[in-house]
């Protein structure tokens, strides 16, 4: 699981900003939001322009860095903080696999080119490369001098992690393989004016065609009914159909012509939820921008019931309730800081408190 993440000099974050998912309180409600002593589910709130989208994108730099999964085309545009483009962007991750902490940090320049890289496992440095120098734990990864020199120069900017994964036989439970599996299973997506995603998949799908091809029409209908209360009467597809049709008063009408904007976004959510069996960490940016507030709540309940870590960003304070999450799982991001609600007030927060009312009453200060 992802336990900690920090970034510095990325887009709007001139100073270091850290999300620590190991710091949780001992609330005895919404316990599903904590897994293996790490916060599994959370919602990030913040004013417009506070950096919610950029923070989510920063977490997913490691997907661009280590995998061949789908990447956001303009990700490296405006990559570094505008006031300091010559300073490198610093990424710092801590993962926990089977109780073992793995710290992985690296820096990139304003082009997104890798400049330094370090890994520490259980407090012991495994390798470090920086400014033409390279060191590695020879007991773990024995390596001759010529290879070490090439890695110190690293002219083709191959991540050391990927080099070790492809160059050494590793046990099935090795932390590098666990890291690789976790990063390959990370997914970021949003659906505003443009649908975008990072990670998990290598292909682009037409959603209607995907649902038809995988014989998911009835399942999709039940999903819409259970989540939103809408009961669409989908017609059986004809051979070669690539779009969904509904029947209204005996007339066959394309689903997209009668579905609202919010329902269209539910179709995208349904697609990704069908893929989340392989997901490890999911971040949905402004997931409920087109949802009714009660629909947002129902969607969150389904997302947070998944076994993977799931985080969203939102402006919908209706979700700020102890019936859904705990005060240590609702975060406020503002002024280059991100804190859980319980750390934003001296007030003791209990299950019976109306968290949304407290928030609107300006109780929480980042």
Main-sheet strand order equals 2-1-6-7-8-9-10
Distance between the termini: 26 Å
Q: Main β-sheet, in a few words? A: 7 strands, antiparallel
Mean pLDDT: 89
Percent helix:
25-40%
CATH superfamily of the largest domain: P-loop containing nucleotide triphosphate hydrolases
Total number of domains: 2
Oligomer: single chain
How many H/I helices? 11
Can you tell me the residue ranges where pLDDT is under 50 for at least 5 consecutive residues? none
Per the principal axes of the C-alpha atoms, what is the gross shape?
A: globular
What is the CA-atom radius of gyration, in angstroms?
22 Å
CATH hierarchy class name of the largest domain: Alpha Beta
CATH topology of the largest domain: Rossmann fold
What is the succession of H and E elements? EEEEEHHEEEEEHHHEEHHEEHHEHEEEH
Derived structural class: alpha+beta
Beta-strand fraction estimate = 25-35%
Count the strands? 18
Q: Report the CATH architecture of the largest domain.
A: 3-Layer(aba) Sandwich
